[in-house]
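Troubleshooting: if your tokenizer reports a length mismatch, compare your output against this known-good record of 164 residues.
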Amino acid sequence: MYRRSPVEKQILSPSTVAMTLGTWIGFTAFLIAIYILWRIKQALLMIFAAVVLATALNRLTRQFQRLKLPRSLAVFLSISLFFLGITIGFLLVVPPLINQLEQLAKQVPAGLEQGLKLLNLLIDYLRTDLNGPLREYLSEVSRDLRQIRIEQIIQQAQALSQSN
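Known-good structure output:
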């Protein structure tokens, strides 16, 4: 008879397989913490951005202080450079964005109108074509399918009659 080793007994014991009350409490606390973090994610992102910005400005301020500038002037220069960078970025991005949005606003109605024209042409083509070659083709395909189905039924009936 096979005897289990003490390690196997411990691994497969009911106390290791079943969740204890402490495990359930920990799991529930974990789920509650995840839910709370999800609800305050915007605030957490703002705090993270503020910490990153403060760290970057502090490093820049220390660089200015190494140049023998007083801390107050170094802080002023760091903040001024930050806002100058934001302003330059804004000036580089916003005017082209506005121009492109204006072009889009002009081109969307024309594009929609052209799409509707193409759709109407397709509908008209299908209406006229259903009375012509397409209708004949579909009826021919339908006949072929019926014929194939009838031939299959006949073959199956013959096979059944031969097996009896």
